[in-house]
Structures are given as structure tokens and as C-alpha cells.
User: What shape does this take?
Amino acid sequence: MRKRIFRLLLLTAILICCPIIACNALSEVFFSPGETHTSTLDFRQYFETMSATQGACTMSIRQDIYQEDQAQDLWATVQSDLQALSGLVGMETEQFAPFTIFVVQQTFLGVERYGDRLYCTAGDIENGAYRQALIGVALGIEEYWKTLGLQNCLLDIPVDVAQLKAAYEQASELDGLSLFISYFTEPFACAAEIALAQQTATAIIRYILERYGIDALVLEDDIAYKQEWLQSIGVDRVYTDPYAQVLRDYRFTKANGYTLVATTSLNHRFYLQPLEDMQTARDVRIFLYEAAAYSQALLDLFRAEAPDYYKIAKSCWEGKLNIFCNTGGGSYVQPAAGRVKLQLSYGYMHELTHILHHVPEGIRYATEVWPYEGLCEYVSSLFPFYSYKRTCYEDVLCKYQHTGDAAGEGKSPNADNRKYWARVTEIYLANAEMPASIEEMDMALFMHAQVLAPMRYAEELKNSVWSYPLDRIDSHGFTSFQAGNFTGYLIRQSSLNTYLDYCAGVKTFEQAFGLSFEEAKENWNEDVEKGIM
Ligand SMILES: [Zn+2]
Assistant: This one.
């Protein structure tokens, strides 16, 4: 009761003191102490709020910045935006999904949204910067391109259809039509690509809204609509998207120093910056697809072929995992912290294997390390990333195919390394035609050449970094490729489960594989020489 009297007094005060905003009083709402904003992984702040709710919309203003007049103005702005959205999508505002807008004095990463919560400043509401996120929470839509396209429709932003038609007729491939968030994100996309993605998003949203209505937009399967829209502007090309299904697992945010953070349903976070092998919007998309698809495939492999080790691998997988992609400092893993650092994106499967199957404490010597490194390299060879195939094709086969033994035209600044890649190319081309594209490349053959070259040309290649043994303290002389290949050989002789028994010390080498290490190595050597992969 006291609250109601207070509100009446307040209304009267506003009407008397400030007649100009009297019309706003119609949509006034009552703010009262609301639920405390709790600190979570997403929002690392704790604060008291003043809060108001009407229909689907709750606005919770941080208590120590709360001012009644400003609160009412912000509320009126939000309601007016919701009305406009309601008109655009043909839905009553009461039908919107319940959501909360947290208003704070300062955000560190601009407007942020997590699920049904939006986090911004009063200024973000006043200047409209929060609007795209508002559309997302009100309609329950996560995809960036859809909320952006809806916002552009709301603002009546025009689209140049002739320009879009020309762009998609000339595009070498149509991955940009996925409108994946990386196509809107610098530096993965350049200004022209971002402008194209913006226009396309707006045009497709308008097309879907006009013909099929908002329900079609909320559905996540939009490949058919994109194909249809493409036809409607007169581009006669087939659009498919093999990555879309798997990529739906990711949500996107920002972080200090990283333009894009991709979070999975297990709360694994990929902190993304351009890498030497991940420069473009398409590269980012393929990387995130492969990381998700191949991680699952690796777990499936453990379940099927190493049942004794599956449970622990799965629990490691379900634990904390943060992957930092940035140049410099190499690739490495800190399993206990659930932290992976990648200098090259294709190192992901190697480092993930270290997470799922830790090197035990106290392992120091290469004789003990190689089974672990070998396993990681073996897994990498089972699931070669596109970026790896691309570098093998473009930076090796294409560059060295005509050089024969006269190395010198390749990419590497080091002459010894160029000799290595020339020999790898020579071995590859002695067994297969020069592939016409990355897709036509025989990766198994290429990887075999990587293993064979330092064996066959030991003296010539001894100074190449690719001939160095895994660890120079003491070793069996395996290069990392060879350790991976030898591991594959042992697993084929027994099983992954048995191989892991050997790593764990449950079985000796002889117990696990039925012969001595030296015999096994000799047999493997012969197989490699004979080209058995
Ligand atoms: Zn390693």
C-alpha cells in the first residue's frame, strides 16, 4: 500500500513540475527494488537493482545509478522500440519472450547479451546501440545476421539488389551466404565483405518476413530460404551448407583483446584472433566446424576402441576448456587448467588429445614422452584440418612441384627445410598425379611422404627442423610425424585400448604388442619403406 501512495505522489509531482513529459506518464511504470544481479561466468558483477516489469519486459537498473526521471525515459524508449518491432514482425508485444535489460553505468565490451539477458548502459538505450540485442531477446533469436537484418528492416535501411545479384553471381563460392558471424567481424572480414553481409542479411530478412512471416525466421533451418531468395534476385546457383548443423552449438560474445569468442553448449570457449592459417571469415567458420565435429569423432573413437579410457576422456572433455588462438608463443596445453594455446589452428586436435589423455606427472624423458606425443600426432593425422590440407597443398605441393631436387622456390626461408619439402613433394608425385585442388589431394600419401623423407634422405635432411627428433635429451630418433605414424602402426597391430594400457604402464611394450620395441620399430620401418600406410 505504501508503494502505491508513493507512486501517486510521484505522478502528481511529475504532472505539476514538468508538464512537457506528461504524455510520457501514460506509459509510466513503477520501479521498485528488484532481484539482485548476481555474478556469473558471463556477468562478473554483483549489484542491487531497481526493477520494473510489464509483459515480457523487465528493466533492472543498477541501484546506485538509478534516477526516477531517467528510468521513465529509458522505459518509454524501450516500449517504443518494442512497439515498432511488434509492428514489423506482426506479433503483439505480450507474445515476446520474457527478458531482462540490465542497465549499468559502464560496460567493458559494449552491449552484451546472454540468452534472455541484455546488459548495457543508459546511453546504449538512448542512442539505439542496444536495439539489435533487444530484438534478439524479445524474439528469442540468437543468430547475429537475423537480429541485424531485423534491426535494419526496422530502420528501413535500403538494399541495392542489383549489387547483391552481381556479388553472388561473381563469388567464387557461396559460403558468405551463411551470414556466419565472422562475416560481420573485423579483421576476419574486410569492410566490403561486412557491407555485403549487412545488405544480404537485410534483404533475406525482408524476403522471409514478407512471404513467410516471423515464425519462419525463428526456425533455425534457413538454408532453403536463402536458396529461394538467391533465385528471387535472379542468381541461378545452388547453395548448400555442410557446416550449419554442427555450428548451431556455438554462441558468440566478445572479450578483451579478442574480436570474437565462440562458446559451446559445454561452455568451452574459443578466443579467436587471426592466425597464420586462419585469416578469413570462411577460415574461422571451417575451423569452428572441424573443432566441434572432430572433437566428437575423437570421443566416439575412445568409446568404441578404448572403452577402459572413455570415461576419463569424457570427464576431461566435459570439464573446463578455454582455447586461445593468437600468434606468437607456439602451441601448448595446460591440462590441469583446461587451457589450450594455439599458434596454428590445425594444432587443435593434437592439443585436445593432451587434454583427454594427460601425460602423467613425472614423465621427463623422450623414451617416455613419445607414446603421448605419438598419440597426439596420430589423432591429428586421423582428423586433418582443412587449414592443414591447404598448407600442404598450396605451400608445399604447388610450390615445389617443379623444383625437383633444386629446392629454392618454396615458402620456407630456411634452405634445409626447403630441401625437406622438395623431397616430400618428390615422393608424393612419384606415387600420384599432381592434384588439381585441395579436395583432390591424397592426405594419407602426403603424410606418408612426411614420414619417409627423413628416413630415405637422412644425411641430406639432417639439418631440417622436420628431421629433428621429438626430444633431444634422449630419443628413439622419431620426428613428430614418425612418432604419430609409429603409434598408428602399433594401434593397428593391437588396439587403441591396448596402446593406452602401454602408455599407462599397465602393460609393458612386449605385453601390449607381442614383440620387442626394436623388432616393432624395424617392422614399421619396412612398412614405411614399402609404402604401407
Ligand atoms: Zn604435444
About this structure: The chain has four domains: 26-140, 151-241, 251-358, 386-530.
